[in-house]
Amino acid sequence: MTEFFGHFVNGEEIESADGQRFETVNPYTEQPWAEVALGGKADTDKALQAARDAFDHGPWPRLGPQERQRILRRFSDLMVEHAADLARLDTLDMGKPTPQAIADVERSAWNIRFFADHQVLSTGDQYPMDSGHHAYSLYQPAGVVVAIAPWNFPLMMESWKVAPALAWGNTVVLKPSEFTPTSAVLFAKLALQAGVPAGVFNVVHGAGATGALLTSDPRIDRITFTGESSTGKAIQTAAAKNLLPVSLELGGKGANIVFDDAELENATDWAVQAIFRNAGQVCLAGSRLFLQRGIYDKFLELFKAKAEALKIGDPQAEGTEFGPLSSQTHYKKVAGYVSTVEAEGGRILTGGIGQGLFVKPTIIVDLPLTASQYRQEIFGPVVVVNPFDSEEEVVRLANDTPYGLNAMLFTENLSRAHRVAADLKAGTVWVNCFFIRDLRAPFGGIGASGIGREGGNFSREFFTEPKAVVMQINRRPSWE
Ligand code: NAD
After folding, report:
1. What's the whole-number mean pLDDT along residues 26-42?
2. What is the Å distance from ligand 1's center to 211 Cα?
3. CATH architecture of residue range(s) 3-250+445-468
4. 8 Å CB contact between 380 and 359
5. What's the mean pLDDT when you consider all of the chain?
6. Centroid of ligand 1 to alpha carbon of 206 (angstroms)
7. 255-431 adopts what CATH topology?
8. Is pLDDT of 193 > 80?
9. What Rg value do the Cα atoms of the chain yield, rounded?
10. What span, in angstroms and rounded, lies between the C-alpha atoms of 421 and 410?
11. For ligand 1, atom 20: residue with the closest CA
12. pLDDT above 70 covers what percent of the chain?
């Protein structure tokens, strides 16, 4: 084990003040592959102060939109140039197959570029008034943003937060997940290399305790968080003490609904992507699959064959499509759900527990609707399949969950597609597809899946302080 990753504060990679470190483990080999600085109070203090000073006195919030755009576009280009290096770090940390990790880097680079351009093209509003005045809106940077990220799409989730935060002129302290800390360091170094001033983008490593130090600090202005619903509640509680706006992207238990008029090759291809990509460690996973009775057997036959054809193995080997679970801790959780399927009354059609930290692509049938596998977020390659008869029934089943992040539906019936999309309790509904996202569209969840929306103008609302300026045009008191 030779590699070391420090915090990144004020443009420098540094050890913890007390020299503490933790190990990051490659889930394929189950061996530690790098050491990482473990952030304590002195380290969070230093990073927060750097971000505060850079916001209050530095050039970044005061640059023109096109100046920031130029720098952020360079940042995006540098990420593409370093795609293999960035992807390697995510793969070593959490077992994501290399091509998927590369795709994540490309998407992350696009996120940076999109928000750089979006803030240039954005316009405010102007409100003519009857009283001889007019008002207009200004969108000014919010301040210091604390960004807390999960491990399932390390770089990509971080970029969704860092891109709009930087584009709108804020400064950032990012805490990556303790399971996937390493790509964030290179990410921040590339920002500096592109011209983002020192202190604007800082990274502190550590687990929940480090995160809590950041989110409870009065020097911050926004918290953007992605992770479990239970952690989201802790973060909202911390934010309430300082009256801070929070953006919470939380868990999910996505419904994937296939009507009997669906195009089955397309629907089964997407169903495989929806639950087995990234070994099912996707908040948007289609983990509850509802099949209309007329196509139940035919769909399962096709779906099972495609699940079994996935190439499982070393995430760094060519051709691998499906890697291990991200950590020992997470493996135990997912394997626990799989090992109790029969006790809960269900049957494993294919899959089950594999070698090392692998859980194979697993399809469960005949499970009662009260079973834990059906109701709770497993966050692994495990799908529970149920038949349904009518549109009303499936909408009721799909909405019967505390979560509301996303849903998918497959049908060739246009009216039904619109009707069901409107009736589903979900922040995003995909019709005849999955995972496609336009960065201008709202993204977020209902209920236990989160608070707030990000994307395009929704991100602008969160990462700025919208201000009204009222101008007098005619010298006439407004009460006349
Ligand atoms: P997690 O909640 O365990 O951890 C997320 C982050 O929060 C980590 O960086 C962790 O160190 C930090 N953290 C933990 N306790 C904290 C505290 N008290 N204060 C501040 N920070 C704290 O989640 P995870 O296991 O890393 O990620 C998986 C979860 O994320 C799943 O529930 C998944 O659905 C969800 N997720 C949601 C989205 C979305 O867009 N809605 C996207 C990806 C993942």
Report:
1. 98
2. 10
3. 3-Layer(aba) Sandwich (3.40)
4. yes
5. 97
6. 13
7. Aldehyde Dehydrogenase; Chain A, domain 2 (3.40.309)
8. yes
9. 23
10. 11
11. 211
12. 99
Digit-coded pLDDT (tens) for 236-247: 999 999 999 999
245: its two tokens: 């706006």
Q: What is the pLDDT of residue 1?
A: 59
Q: For residue 177, which atom of ligand 1 is closest to its CA?
A: 9
| Cα 140 from Cα 166, distance rounded (Å) | 12
Catalytic option among 158, 178, 283, 454: 283
Cα(163) to centroid of ligand 1, in Å? Answer: 19
The domain spans of the chain are 3-250+445-468, 255-431
Query: Contact at 8 Å (CB) between 220 and 143?
Result: yes
Rounded to an integer, the average pLDDT of 158-179 is 98
Which residue's C-alpha comes closest to atom 16 of ligand 1? Answer: 208
Q: Which residue from 38, 203, 231 has its CB within 8 A of the most atoms of ligand 1, so it is best to mutate?
A: 231
Q: HSE-up of 10 (CA within 13 Å, CB side)?
A: 12
249 is catalytic: yes
Q: Is the model's pLDDT at 141 over the cut of 90?
A: yes
pLDDT tens profile 303-357 = 999 999 999 999 999 999 999 999 999 999 999 999 999 999 999 999 999 999 9
H helices of 58-175, in order, are: 65-81, 83-94, 98-121, 154-167
What type of residue is 303?
F
CA dist., res. 285 & res. 273, Å (int) = 9
Q: Which of 38, 283, 331 to mutate to test the pocket of ligand 1 (most atoms within 8 A of CB)?
A: 283
Higher pLDDT, residue 125 or 474: 125
> Are the CB atoms for 257 and 431 separated by under 8 Å?
no
Task: Output the pTM of the full model.
Answer: 0.96
Span 411-421, average pLDDT: 98
Residue 283 appears among annotated catalytic residues: yes
pLDDT above 60 for 53: yes
Ligand 1 nearest atom to the CA of residue 178, by list position: 11
- Under 8 Å between Cβ of 138 and 119: no
- Report the nearest-CA residue for atom 40 of ligand 1: 249
Residue 479 — pLDDT band, cuts 50, 70, 90? low
Contact 137, 148 (CB under 8 A): no
**DSSP string over 165-178:** HHHTT-EEEEE--T
Of 15, 35, 106, 249, catalytic: 249
Q: Comparing C-alpha atoms, which of 433, 413, 348, 421 is closest to residue 383? A: 348
pLDDT at 478 over 60: no
Return the ligand 1 atom nearest residue 179 CA: 26
Whether residue 250 has its Cβ less than 6 Å from ligand 1: yes
